[in-house]
Specification:
Blueprint: H1 3-10, H2 16-28, H3 33-67, H4 69-72, H5 77-87
Helix pairs in contact: 1-2, 3-5
Length: about 120
């Protein structure tokens, strides 16, 4: 991969659309680009699988906590949900549907949320 040429384009004063075009031109000349693209796609798939798996586990825990009153105060589901949103705050399609969350240490030793 021609990192020097990529760096020159990235550090140039070209508009972003021109930079993208030039980067694609540079990468298209690299014989190793297909395996690199395949690796990128595999990492994206694994990341999405991680999000879905973690979301399913979290929803299952939340359902159990809501249906079983004996777990409601001890399951810490609100903190787990908050931490999920915080962990994946930059992932496309992941976010709270009804409010914008403040990610500045909402759950601390002094404030564990309403269930503790």
């Amino acid at each position: 991969m021609n990192l020097k040429a990529l760096k020159e384009v990235l550090n140039s004063n070209y508009p972003d659309s021109s930079k993208e075009y030039e980067i694609i031109n540079i990468l298209s000349k690299d014989e190793k680009i297909i395996p690199i693209i395949m690796d990128i796609l595999e990492r994206e798939r694994l990341y999405k699988k991680e999000i879905y798996s973690e979301c399913n586990l979290l929803l299952s825990q939340a359902d159990t906590c809501l249906e079983e009153p004996k777990f409601t105060k001890t399951c810490g589901i609100q903190e787990k949900i908050y931490n999920f949103f915080k962990k994946y705050k930059d992932a496309k399609g992941v976010g709270h549907c009804f409010k914008k969350l403040d990610y500045s240490n909402r759950f601390t030793e002094d404030n564990k949320g309403p269930f503790e």
